[in-house]
Structures are given as structure tokens and as C-alpha cells.
């Protein structure tokens, strides 16, 4: 979305169709060029990408305009993988199942699930990104990270007791958030966003009232910091969660259709897990 | 919403229902186990998968219950990558842009785009899978692949002139379909579904009326055959397209919000591509 | 949708806009004409309708192209009113509440609720209309109503034990269905559809296995018969339920946002009604 | 989905959660009471309302908890009727048509259309209501209506040049808004909201820069003022537009399915109206 209009390309017929020379209604897209028998994502023929890029790398290319380095590709893969599914507990999953069970299509079930991503569910990534942006500006303006963190907590914890990016209904230590921050560090891709977020976490949990009940960093917060350091803008933040979770919604919708009677009452507290017991990845995968 | 709780009413059975004395409401899910500080997808802790699996491999694991082999992982990656985006031409993309441009959320824009996946758009994968299943049954019952193909074409081309899985509004040779079939062959993962589909293609295009205008295999058809051979059932077929395309819908919704005025008329024929000119993958990626 | 193109109107500029005389892309709509400072629904300026028609009459006009007679307006009002809300029991309502409670917009909550109208929920009206059409054809072909009813039950009860339009999860006698059929009769607007439906109901419940547990006519069945006699086609059948129920979905989404904590578990069996106790309409309303 | 229930896992707490010993999960709803063979909206059996209330009156009852007076019923009917349809020009209508044309269900088409109601489309009613609330507080605090209007315009026109509730893409005088304000006046139901809105309109258009291009009150603004005076809260404001327009979305989705080829390009500028020419209501309706 930040590429110069490639004038020669355009002159040579890159234009999708061109029929009305005097028309002022033209508009530009820099994502994908379509012509007969040609599909080029950000300049790369999609059939040349197939078999060569991972899906996450291709998503990164589509969203950002350039191929990721191998390290960035690996980290972005972990970002998408982190939120792939969260069992039958989230509202979005219950909604997708309820719609699937009423006899609607998979498209309807997934779409309804996506609509449950609201400000309380998957909607924190943009908020954390904007909050961290603000803190980084404070830091660039001369404040220490710790001062910036304190100011952020004052500003963003007045309305809501919990700052965006912290706390979870179920987890006291979100295993996905910890792993994602660690990976960013190992891959040397953590920058100002990650650093500031860690300071915010420390300052927040050094407050006396948190001594008994520390507020853990959650996966929304970790994605926001990691993707902020990767250069993603806040306006796409919540979208990363949507991409990540759609296969989860779909899997639940299909399981509901295949294994449950229609129109049933779906009580998440009555669910039990009957899949395989905990297992380890084979050595070859490590 | 401002009424006193009518106590007598409540006592007299105002409660809508309460009838689970024996509580037989338990239900099973085999996808993901959630406990405090634990998220296990099909038995694997998600934080152990992060950094070790590609996203496509994790999606495969979630949908199928087992890790894919490296070859299957590679092929399934290509399946998801093949339909990642198709520029501004599909109805779903126009819908996602129109909704994004009216000031609705990214969730709303993506959900509306997904709703445009109907029987004429992204809805052929299931149909092709069922059609090929039928043909494979015929083959197992003693027919040659060619006889099975002829029978399928008779049965499924009477209502619609184009059999599911063939033809495209824009392409006369769908580059994605060709590449996906080739990859399945190279990876030795093509089986009865792919074989039958190739025979159907040959029989279809040997019909005299196709001599001038051959009907090419499209990407829906190729995904159906490849995923049929991978063991996916038809009930999840259209879902694979949903997963694949959601990042495309999102990228267009974001581009619309960032670069276009709200509430504009979106004429796909006025769009031109101003991204990078055609380019090749670096050698290191091949 | 069945009006002749009004040629003089068209010549006089009824066309919404006209810029490309040689263009073959023109397409027609007969619903509403828009011009600067003019909004005409089926030829009637909407500002002249305001204060003069009821909303149901205007909906009827929009859908059918002509004003309803007073009796038809009254019956169609009852059709829309019959399914206005059904408390917190239907899947669509639970979905709308769950989405509202996740912090999404009212639009998202209502849309998600509408997506839960599937083949098992609000999706029977079209099916009943097509079934009754078939039976009326049989009758016109010489069968008695009773013979037609028996044939329909044979044909449509093989796959599903319950024919469309009969049975309800909660009601053994659906008070809305009974009232709607009675109103159609009082207003002398019941015709072949209603007559056949009553015969189907009688034949169905005279089967020995129904002696203990009769299957009552439900509101979907009654709407289908009444609207069939009003001349509505089956392709709009399920749409009548959508129109009718949207205010119900909205009311629940708003109540959820105003009175409940976000992200709560929504258990319909835990709900109790705390509104006003049963009351009668004032005499002036009868 | 084909795994044996892992019994030890289950015994060891595979159940996701089960923790309601004291069961404090009860929650209240005051909208509709459901019991076997009973459906009571705000205390009134729905079958007693059928044939006696208009649909708008029943919607008002559901949303507000009490029957409207005849005058309020008439005004609220006009509110719902005012936005019933606006031809093929709005984004929501184009979206509903595009989705209907891709072979998706009516539910999907209507839901997608509703999702296009965003901050730029149908999303102004809540904003105007809050703005007028603010002005009325200023008035109660001692300011004249004119001073309050000036302050509102200063506060709410800095970010956007157009204050919410004014201006329209097509109309220079919105006939629906004018008629609704007039009806409220005739029925003596206009109060502080309507009075303040009229003052805002006068102040706004007496600005020198508006001399040539006055900004007309639009229908969102009029609905906001009229419904504010009827006692509706801002949180339901945008919902009134959703209710009003759903039949319009549906009518377009059905017309698209019945009269157009699937997957067509939908260019609103190519549409022409071929319904009946302008006509007057019969005398009996006035």
C-alpha cells in the first residue's frame, strides 16, 4: 500500500481494464493484478509462489507488499498460529456452532463467528498498538520507558480497570503470549514495542493491589507488540486475529454439523474434550 | 427493562425452563482442550507448535486430527495459497470493500465478504468433491475412468451447461489449477480424485462443441481433487476456500479504508493496479 | 416485480441516471425510484405514504407492487406481528445477544442473528409453500384435497419424520398459528393454501402413531399458507420471517448491552422473565 | 473427530469447566415471556395482539415496554416507513444484491446488507441523539437554544465539516425529513429535541459559507429528534434504521435473484426504474 505507482507497468497494460479514457472515476489498488490467465500478488505470479512460500509468508507479502525475511516469516507464522483456536470457550466459537446447528451454511457460521469479534473479544490488538505508539512517542520525547509506562497506565486504566493487552478470563499466565515474546527475542525481532510492553507489564504488576492477583500479558498484547515491531500499523491489528481464528471457527462449525443434533442448546460448561491426550511433537519437528 | 422482578410470577414458573434434573446435556469436542494456562490443539500444546509448525500445517492438524507429513504439509500450503486473493474482481471482494467504506468494522467487512461465497462463488469445491466421489464409486463398481467421466458429465451437465470445477469468468487456463495439479503429481500425492478429474477434463474438452472454446479446469476443481486425495470430506470443501481467501478480503478492506473516500461508488472496471511490476522470486526462495 | 415497464415514465427521465447510450449494461429495478429530492416506492412518494399507510401496508406495497386492501393489510400485519419475538429461546436470539455482549455493534448483532435463520429455524416457510403448491397442483389435476394431502405426507415425510410446517420445540399448540389461520378465515382471505394445510393437519394427526402426541401446525406453516393465498411466491417466504423477527433480535441485543456484563456465558435455561405480568389490551384497542 | 473418548483424560478433568455449585448464573429479561403454548410480549399474549395492533405499535411495545398512544403509534409508524427503501443507490442495497447474486441465501444477503450500516450510512441517528442530548443539557443549564446550537456546531463540526444529521449525497431537501418533522408537529409530539434541531438547522445554514449550498436536515437527523422526543435512548438509535430498512434489503435481494443473472457486475449508474409511474394515493387512504 506504500508502493509508487509503477508507471511503465501501468502504461504496458497493468491496468485491469481501461475503457473510458475521459472518466475520472479511476481508482488504484496495489494488492493483486489480474489479467487473463495471470494472478500476481504484489508482482509475484501466484502459481510461482505455490510450493515455494509458506501460507503465512504469502499473507505477509499480501498485507505488507514485500517478502518477509526467513526470521520474520517464522515469527509471523507464530503470530497466526498463536490464536488458531481456543476450544469451545469464546463467544465467537459458540456463535459459529449455534449458527451451524440451525442448518445455515459454513459461510454463514464463519461470518457470524467473525461478527463476535468485538471490543471485548479479539478487539484489543489495535488498542494496544495505539497505546504503545503513544508510549514510544513519549519515550522519543525524552521520557524513560518506565515513565512512559506509568503515564500510559494512568491514561488507559482510568475508564477500565484492566489495561488493554492484559488479563484473561481463563489463564493466569497466557502460554501463547509468553512463547510469542520469547520467539521475537530469540529471532532478534523485538524492538521498542516489545521493550515497552515488558516495562508496562512490570510496572503494572508492581502495583500493591496486584501483589495477590497479577495481571498477565495476554495474547492480544503480545501480538500487538510483536507486530508493531514488525511494522504493522494499528488499523490492521484486529485483522490479524480474524485471519488467525477463522480456521478455528470453521473447524467448530464442521464438528457441530457432523456430530451434534440441530438446534440443540449449546452449553459450554457441558462440553468435554475427547480428543487425543497430551502429546509431544516428534523429534523431527523440533 | 425497568420493571420490578415480578416475584409471584417468578415463583409461579416465570422461569423460562429449568428441567435438567438428570443432566444428560454433556457433549464432546475433539478439537482443542482448554484448561487454565493450557491450550492444546489435538493434544499438542499450542505454545510448543509455535515456531515449529507452519500455519498451514497447524490448520491441517486442527481440521484432520493428525500432523501432516512434510509432503502433505507442502501441498496443503499450496492449496491455501492458491486462492489467497484474486484482486478486485470477485463479488466477495467488492462487498468487503463496500462495507469497509461505509465506516463499518474490519470484522463486519470480512464477514460480509464471506457471505458472498455462495453457490456461484467459492461454492463449487463441495460439489466437485461429491461429483468425484460418485465417479470413484462407479469406477470401483467396474467402470473405466473414462466411462465414469462420461456418466458424470451426463448427470451433472444437464441442469447447468458447465460442470462444477470447470470454466472461469476471466481465465481460459487457470494458472493456479494447473500448478496445484502439477504439485500434487510431483509430491506423489495425486490419487483417484486427481486421476478422475483429469479424465473428466479430457472427455469434456473432446466434445465437438468445445473444440473452439475449451472449458479449463478451475481452481475450485483442482482443490476438490487434491483435497479429496488428501482425505478431506466434501462437507469441509467450501470451508477451505473461506480460510484461504479471508486474508484477501481483509487486505482489500484495509486498503479501502486507508486509500479511498467513504461511501464511494466502487466500479471494478475503473480499478487499475499500481503495485510493483511483475517480479521473480529470489533464487534463495526456489 | 410484475409491472410493465412504464414507457412514458421512462422516456420522461424516470431512469435513475442515463449517461451511456450505447452501453448494454443497463438493468431494471421496479421497486423504488430515486431522483433528487424524490423517493417513490412503487410510484408513491414516500413522504405521501408517511402518516397514511401502516408500516406493514408499505412493506406489502414494496414487496408486491400494489397497495393492499384494508383486509389484506390487516392480515399481513398479523403475519409480521406473529413472529416479532420469541423470548430468549431461539438460536438466533442467543447469537444476537452473544455478539452484542462481545462489544460489537448493533448491526453486527442483528446480522449474526439473521444468519442463524437456517433450514431448521425460520427456514420452513419456503418449504411449506412449495409443498402446498405441489399439493394444489395435484388437486387441480383431479385429486381430492385429502388424496393430495396423503400424497404430500408420503413424499415429504420419508426423509424427515416431521413434515415442514408442523411441530414445535416448546408448543404443543402454537397460539400464533391458530390465531393467524382464524384471522384469515374471518377476513375471508383463506383459499386453497389454507384449505389444503388444514386437510394435511387433519390427515397427519389421524395417523395412529400421532394419537398420543399430535403434531401441531406451527407458525411457519400458517404463514406459508396464509401468504400463499395472498399471492406471495415461495422464494420470498423465508424473507417474511426475517422482516418479522429483526426487531426482536434488536431488542435482545440492546437489552443485553444495557443490562448484562460483557462476555458472559448466556445460558437460556438460567433466564427468567421479569417484565410485567400477563395483562389484557384496553377496551379501546379491541 | 474420530478419536476414542480418552477416558482417563475425562476423569482427570477433561471437562472444560464445571463450577456452578451455588449457581448464581440467573439472569433477567423483560421482553417476552415464553411458556408452553404461551408467547407474551411485555405481558400481552401475542395472539391477542394479532389483528388488534399495527406492526409498528407492536415494535414500539417490544422496544419500550408500553403500548403507544394512537398519536405516538402513528408517528412511530412514519419513522419506520420513512427509511423503508432508497432504491439501488445505498451501499447496503448494492451489497445485499451482490451477495444474493452469488447464490447465497436471503438470510446471507440481508445480513451482509445490514453490515454495511456503518458510521457513514445509517449510523448517524445515535450520534445526533447524543449531540442533541448535550445541547438540551446546555439549555437546561441556562443557555438559549441558539447559544446551545452554536456551541454544538463548534464542538461537532471541527473534525468533520458536516454535522451529523445534515446533508445527503443525492437530496438537497430530504422529503422524508421534512415530512417527519411536520408530522411530529401536527401530532403535537415535537419537544425539546425537535426544537433544538430546528435551531441547529437555522444557525448552520445562516453561516455565510452555506449561503450558496445550504445543508439540509436529513432523515437520520429527523428520526433522531423525533425519537428523542418520544423517549428513545441513543443506544437504540441506529437500530431504528436497521428495522426500517431490512424489508428494503430483502426486496432488492429477491428482485436480484428473480430478474438478474448471477455474478453480474452491479453498476448502480446503469440501473433504470421500470416500475409504475408516479401515482397518488386513492382518496380513501387520505
Short description:
Chain A has 286 residues and is mainly α. Chain A contains twelve helices and five strands. Chain A is globular, with a radius of gyration of 22 Å.
Structural class estimated from helices and strands of chain A: mainly alpha
Q: What order do the SSEs of chain A take from the amino end to the carboxyl end, as H and E?
A: HEEEEHHHHHHHHHHHE
Shape assignment of chain A: globular
What oligomeric state do the depicted chains represent?
Answer: homotetramer
- Major β-sheet annotation of chain A: 3 strands, antiparallel
If strands are numbered along the chain, what order do they take across the biggest sheet of chain A?
Answer: 2-3-4
CA-CA gap between termini of chain A:
36 Å
Mean pLDDT of chain A: 90
Strand-residue fraction of chain A? 5-15%
Rounded Rg of chain A: 22 Å
Instruction: Give the low-pLDDT segments of chain A.
Output: 1-23
Walk me through this protein's architecture.
The structure is a homotetramer of 286-residue chains. By secondary structure, chain A is mainly alpha-helical. In chain A, 51% of the residues lie in helices and 6% in strands. Chain A has helices spanning 7-14, 46-49, 55-64, 70-82, 91-101, 106-115, 124-140, 145-156, 175-186, 192-205, 219-229, 237-259, and strands at 27-29, 32-35, 38-41, 44-45, 271-273. Chain A has a 3-stranded antiparallel β-sheet. In chain A, helix 4 runs antiparallel to helix 11. The relative contact order of chain A is 0.14. Residues 1-23 of chain A have low confidence and may be disordered. The interface between A and B is large, with 125 and 112 residues. Strand 5 (271-273) of chain A pairs parallel with strand 1 (27-29) of chain B.
Amino acid at each position: 500500500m506504500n508502493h509508487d505507482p509503477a508507471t511503465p507497468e501501468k502504461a504496458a497494460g497493468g491496468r485491469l481494464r481501461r475503457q473510458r479514457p475521459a472518466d475520472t472515476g479511476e481508482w488504484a489498488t496495489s494488492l493483486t493484478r489480474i489479467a487473463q490467465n495471470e494472478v500476481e500478488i504484489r508482482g509475484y505470479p501466484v502459481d510461482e509462489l505455490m510450493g515455494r512460500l509458506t501460507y503465512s509468508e504469502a499473507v505477509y507479502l499480501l498485507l505488507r507488499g514485500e517478502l518477509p525475511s526467513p526470521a520474520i516469516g517464522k515469527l509471523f507464522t507464530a503470530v497466526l498460529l498463536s490464536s488458531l483456536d481456543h476450544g469451545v470457550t469464546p463467544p465467537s466459537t459458540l456463535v459459529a456452532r449455534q449458527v451451524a446447528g440451525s442448518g445455515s451454511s459454513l459461510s454463514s457460521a464463519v461470518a457470524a463467528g467473525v461478527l463476535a469479534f468485538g471490543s471485548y473479544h479479539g478487539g484489543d490488538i489495535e488498542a494496544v498498538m495505539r497505546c504503545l505508539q503513544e508510549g514510544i512517542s513519549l519515550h522519543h520525547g525524552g521520557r524513560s520507558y518506565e515513565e512512559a509506562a506509568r503515564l500510559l497506565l494512568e491514561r488507559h486504566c482510568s475508564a477500565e480497570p484492566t489495561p488493554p493487552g492484559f488479563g484473561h478470563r481463563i489463564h493466569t499466565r497466557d502460554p501463547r503470549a509468553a512463547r510469542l515474546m520469547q520467539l521475537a527475542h530469540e529471532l532478534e525481532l523485538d524492538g521498542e514495542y516489545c521493550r515497552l510492553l515488558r516495562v508496562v507489564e512490570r510496572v503494572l504488576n508492581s502495583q500493591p493491589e496486584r501483589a495477590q492477583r497479577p495481571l498477565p500479558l495476554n495474547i492480544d498484547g503480545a501480538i500487538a507488540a510483536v507486530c508493531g515491531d514488525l511494522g504493522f500499523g494499528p488499523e490492521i491489528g484486529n485483522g490479524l486475529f480474524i485471519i488467525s481464528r477463522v480456521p478455528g471457527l470453521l473447524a467448530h462449525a464442521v464438528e457441530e454439523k457432523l456430530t451434534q443434533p440441530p438446534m440443540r442448546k449449546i452449553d459450554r460448561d457441558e462440553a468435554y474434550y475427547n480428543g487425543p491426550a497430551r502429546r509431544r511433537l516428534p523429534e523431527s519437528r523440533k
